[in-house]
């Protein structure tokens, strides 16, 4: 069963003219369900304009604070983010799925490392959680953040970042880049792209000194940062990234490379089997199963969040867009149900893994 709970909103703080931080109240009896690791996200569900919508937002708080807070930036024509930014208020309640997501880092008191984070805009949200938790739990570790925005007014969590700098002056540094604001350092005026990252690596930072890197932002930033960091000597396996925006819209016919054939398949959820008919009209296994009443977990429907992941127990499926599963997970048989179609009869998918 997809686990949503209705949680009260304890507080809404305006971070920038178009972004808020929302603190959710987790009752004692639900605390175990809402335990999270730094970097994970929450899926929120609401009826807006007569339609049920779901969106996932990264958790910005640290699990060490015993607080559950997300950051939500209003995107142009974003119905959900607009609703959250303009209509929700403290004291309201909203349906929230238990924390999901594979992006992030679990710090350990016996570990020490030198870490790099690269964010643009609201991409700071999961990184703030990772940075704050790591600095608190790994007392010898260091973090450097490269954070790009259009202007200083658009910087989310500026106060929280300043607090971290004050608390860990020797172990945390931030390089702010502004694309539409002048800087005393010309290198820090402009967007974070491949050339700028290379220049920062040449002039200000030695990327090869970092043990791990975390990136969150739009696709172009992620691609450029991966290339720049790998060229500087950080192995791909030590670079973790989270896309918050893709150039594809939800259900963008991503699985159309698979020949559309009508099939029957079986899904296993909560230990129970359900037969599903997949028609040629169904974009994905997820769509077919939902049409037939299954209550499967999903959020983005765009291959980004991995909320819909399941394991292929029998048969073959073809997956379209995948921004979230790692190669070893695919090797182990995991697929994204929002991006997959069966290649024939006899497919069995396990959603309990
Ligand atoms: S629902 Fe997000 S990847 Fe499938």
From TrEMBL:
<dbReference type="InterPro" id="IPR008333">
    <property type="entry name" value="Cbr1-like_FAD-bd_dom"/>
</dbReference>
<feature type="domain" description="2Fe-2S ferredoxin-type">
    <location>
        <begin position="263"/>
        <end position="353"/>
    </location>
</feature>
<keyword id="KW-0001">2Fe-2S</keyword>
<keyword id="KW-0411">Iron-sulfur</keyword>
<dbReference type="GO" id="GO:0050660">
    <property type="term" value="F:flavin adenine dinucleotide binding"/>
</dbReference>
<keyword id="KW-0479">Metal-binding</keyword>
<keyword id="KW-0285">Flavoprotein</keyword>
<dbReference type="InterPro" id="IPR012675">
    <property type="entry name" value="Beta-grasp_dom_sf"/>
</dbReference>
<dbReference type="InterPro" id="IPR036010">
    <property type="entry name" value="2Fe-2S_ferredoxin-like_sf"/>
</dbReference>
<dbReference type="Pfam" id="PF00970">
    <property type="entry name" value="FAD_binding_6"/>
</dbReference>
<dbReference type="GO" id="GO:0010124">
    <property type="term" value="P:phenylacetate catabolic process"/>
</dbReference>
<dbReference type="GO" id="GO:0046872">
    <property type="term" value="F:metal ion binding"/>
</dbReference>
<dbReference type="Pfam" id="PF00175">
    <property type="entry name" value="NAD_binding_1"/>
</dbReference>
<dbReference type="Pfam" id="PF00111">
    <property type="entry name" value="Fer2"/>
</dbReference>
<protein>
    <submittedName>
        <fullName>Phenylacetate-CoA oxygenase/reductase subunit PaaK</fullName>
    </submittedName>
</protein>
<keyword id="KW-0274">FAD</keyword>
<dbReference type="InterPro" id="IPR050415">
    <property type="entry name" value="MRET"/>
</dbReference>
<dbReference type="InterPro" id="IPR011884">
    <property type="entry name" value="PaaE"/>
</dbReference>
<dbReference type="InterPro" id="IPR001041">
    <property type="entry name" value="2Fe-2S_ferredoxin-type"/>
</dbReference>
<dbReference type="GO" id="GO:0016491">
    <property type="term" value="F:oxidoreductase activity"/>
</dbReference>
<keyword id="KW-0560">Oxidoreductase</keyword>
<dbReference type="InterPro" id="IPR017927">
    <property type="entry name" value="FAD-bd_FR_type"/>
</dbReference>
<dbReference type="GO" id="GO:0051537">
    <property type="term" value="F:2 iron, 2 sulfur cluster binding"/>
</dbReference>
<dbReference type="InterPro" id="IPR006058">
    <property type="entry name" value="2Fe2S_fd_BS"/>
</dbReference>
<dbReference type="InterPro" id="IPR001433">
    <property type="entry name" value="OxRdtase_FAD/NAD-bd"/>
</dbReference>
<dbReference type="InterPro" id="IPR039261">
    <property type="entry name" value="FNR_nucleotide-bd"/>
</dbReference>
<keyword id="KW-0408">Iron</keyword>
<dbReference type="InterPro" id="IPR001709">
    <property type="entry name" value="Flavoprot_Pyr_Nucl_cyt_Rdtase"/>
</dbReference>
<feature type="domain" description="FAD-binding FR-type">
    <location>
        <begin position="2"/>
        <end position="106"/>
    </location>
</feature>
<dbReference type="InterPro" id="IPR017938">
    <property type="entry name" value="Riboflavin_synthase-like_b-brl"/>
</dbReference>
